[in-house]
Amino acid sequence: MTCVPGHFGEWLQGRLGPDGPLALVTLACPDRGVRVTRRPGPFALTGDPVLPEALVRALLQRIGQGAEAAWDLRADFPVGGGAGMSTAALVAIAREAGVTEGLAEACLAIEGATDPLMLPAPDTVLWAPRQARVLDAVAPPPRAEVVGGFFGPPLRTDPADLAFPDVSDLVAAWREGPGLAEAARIASESARRCTALRGPVGDPMEALAEATGALGHARAHTGSARALLFAPGTVPEGLFDQMAEAGLTGLCHFTTGGRG
């Protein structure tokens, strides 16, 4: 069995200038993702419906392995939630088949957009998801506790969609290696800009962050994942109840980041 962790939206995402490339820093979720098991063929696809059969077959043809095998996929988050399940599944299938090189290019060829989940430390790069390449190395995010859920229906990424706000100033601030309070401010501002441009109407995260004492909030800039950001050890009791009352589902709690 091969496991590949997902993510839970992004610390920030947007264009580098009005006509610049789309760029992001992923919010890593190290203890939830996709698990893939390979068994002797003929070809079959079982488990959670993470990927359409056509995409799995396309990947196996590209890597030249696993076409005569049965594949079982198990995902911890919903597809289209902005938690990286499709990228994690593609990477896990390739690794389970014994292929470890060229995974970013393979994922891009299969889906047209990809998260950096094939990298050993996906949250330490400024990533171009429509180009599947590292734009720059950045410091690891500060350690934080994340309490998240999903608001609204799933929304799969459209590779042609570049309607995102300019976040050049936020990227410049992130390159400085912010502490947790500043990182949460950057994430909150990136989320605000995205919601103002892309919706949805009635997103509750700003109000939830204020009501719960969170340092800030983050979101999947495509997808329904939403997160509150806390200093370690400061998550209040009863938070799941408050988030459920605000309309979030699939609630989860994890630690991310590696500094502080």
Give the overall shape: globular
Beta-strand share of residues: 25-35%
Distance between the termini: 33 Å
Number of strands: 10
CATH domain topology of the largest domain: Alpha-Beta Plaits
Number of helices: 7
For the record, the count of structural domains works out to 2
Rg over C-alpha atoms, rounded to the nearest angstrom: 18 Å
Second CATH tier, the architecture of the largest domain: 2-Layer Sandwich
Low-confidence stretches: none
Q: Main beta sheet: strand number and arrangement?
A: 4 strands, mixed
The amount of helix comes to 25-40%
CATH class of the largest domain: Alpha Beta
CATH homologous superfamily of the largest domain, by name?
Answer: GHMP kinase, C-terminal domain
Taking strands numbered 1, 2, ... along the chain, how are they ordered across the largest sheet?
1-2-4-3
SSE string: EEEHEHHEEEHHHEEHE
Protein name: Propanediol utilization protein
Give the SSE layout.
Layout: E1 2-15, E2 22-40, E3 44-47, H1 53-63, E4 69-75, H2 85-96, H3 103-111, E5 125-128, E6 133-137, E7 144-150, H4 168-174, H5 180-198, H6 205-212, E8 216-219, E9 225-230, H7 239-245, E10 249-256
Parallel strand pairs: 3-4
Antiparallel strand pairs: 1-2, 2-4, 5-6, 7-9, 7-10, 8-9
Helix pairs in contact: 1-3
Overview of the molecule:
This is Propanediol utilization protein. The chain has 260 residues and is an alpha+beta fold. It is built from seven helices and ten strands. The protein has helices at 53-63, 85-96, 103-111, 168-174, 180-198, 205-212, 239-245, and strands at residues 2-15, 22-40, 44-47, 69-75, 125-128, 133-137, 144-150, 216-219, 225-230, 249-256. The strands form three sheets. The protein has a four-stranded mixed β-sheet. A hairpin with a 5-residue loop joins strand 8 (216-219) and strand 9. It is globular, with a radius of gyration of 18 Å. The two termini are 33 Å apart. The mean pLDDT is 96.
